[in-house]
Amino acid sequence: MARSRVLSIIDLTDQEIEAWRALAARAAEPNPYFEPEMLVPAVRELSGGAGLRLLVVDGEPGGAEPGGWWAALPFEMVPGDKHWPWRHASTGSDFLALYCPLGTPLVDGSRVDEAIEALVDAFHERRRELGQAIDLHLLSRDGQVNRLLDEACRARGLPVHAWGGDPRGAVRFDEGEPGSWAERMPRGKSLARGRRRLERAVGQTLVLEDRADDPEIAKAFLDFEQQGWKGDAARGGLGFRNRRGGQEWFSEMLAGFSTSGRAHVFALVAGGVLLHMAVIVCTGSTAFGYFDVYSEEWARYGPGAIGRMMALSWLDENTEVEVFDSSMNPSLYKDATALFPDRLTMVSSTVVTGGVFARLTMRVMRAAARVVRRFR
Q1: How far is residue 89's CA from residue 134's CA, in Å, rounded to a whole number?
Q2: How far apart, in whole angstroms, are the C-alpha atoms of residue 82 and residue 346?
């Protein structure tokens, strides 16, 4: 048996955080953006996240299989929009969308079918708390969790309206021999030429270093970020030191992932010149691009693209990672997306959790949308 609860992340106990962390470690599909290492310091340090809550499915005490979290899904309540007219739950609120570019729920990999069925039951059980609907943002279209969620919702008669579908940059290392992915890089030859030009300009050979073990690495990354446009609020820079609590959150988040050995902080250097830094988190067989920053002084040589390609080579040679997810919005980062040879298609959906009236509302909204499209 399973039960569902809605918890406030800011009020979680140490025991609940450990249960969440244990679930993430055995998740059917990894999603570090929905892990406590990411979200607990976010709600504590950053403005705007105090309302973040967690829908949890766990073994009911006294049941056949007590204890342990089966599924967890963070969400916030958002105003009505074109997908649902009233205030409702969403994994793509302004706060979550800014920090979490992947919305796959954490689901126990040892009981995937059972856990997802229980999660969908929780959608209906908690329908009043969810506002009769929940937006699920940016799940992998071809992923197991997305497929089983869709099947479970439809089996229970919960309407699902899928939308979006943007393909973002990725690399599949499991195709071909080690290093063969580089042959599929759309700009592989031009990047190799750019690397040689950059080395000639700096007068030193480029070296990629993983500095994750440096206790001062968070400060070093933020110092480097502050030197460029991201650190300049006058130019619209969204550097972490420009956000209230950003420095504290970034430092705690990075320390959390580093403790489990999953964080890599790559520094591209030539002699004493720092050219590019990137934070990548490896979870299961997937590596996720978190944040990166490059030197504006050497921008004309493309140190960001060169640094990303060298980091991919490092991951291929030194880890068991099979897929690299750039985590980049393809509509905002078209040039960066074009760098990668493969694509991961993300899909979003709105699940109606309420009863007859709510389901009728969704049918009316979809019919109206079809009429609008027809007459555009």
Answers
A1: 5
A2: 19
